[in-house]
Amino acid sequence: MSKLYVLNYVSPIGEIEIRGTNEAVYSIMFSNRNEPLTMLTEEAPIQVLEECASQLDEYFKGERFEFSFPYAFEGTDFQQKVWNALVTVGYGTTTAYKDIALAIGNEKAIRAVGSANGKNKLSIVIPCHRIVGSNQKLTGYAGGLWRKEWLLQHEKRCLGSKGGFMDERDIFKRV
To answer: Cα 106 to chain center, whole Å?
Structure first.
């Protein structure tokens, strides 16, 4: 792998640490620091990391609904299947862990899907925040349930501002 760089992005819900190379972003994680660090840990800006931060900024402003910067994830074959399925969950919608298990062809793997979801290192971009329990309750999120709720409400507000009517239940609509 190429040299790894870190860029710290301050979002409305806390600092996000973006890690990657000149080729791709490998990690987007909430840092839970009280004080932000400098923006970039290396001497020169890295275009891929800056593009990621720019797209995250557009997401938080309600101007972006999909991400297009290069990213890569590393994990087991099973984890990668789960993460690829997560990407298909549309902006402003939710689905259950069970539905992801069905989507990857392993209906009994609900707990394993939850575990893979928890190992996702590309927060927001691989939208694990859109996965809820079968009872539509918010469960598990590495960044904290309050952030998961914030992200879902944010997406709901942004879709609502695009001219469509949404009521409170629409955020928990299944894909």
So the answer is: 23
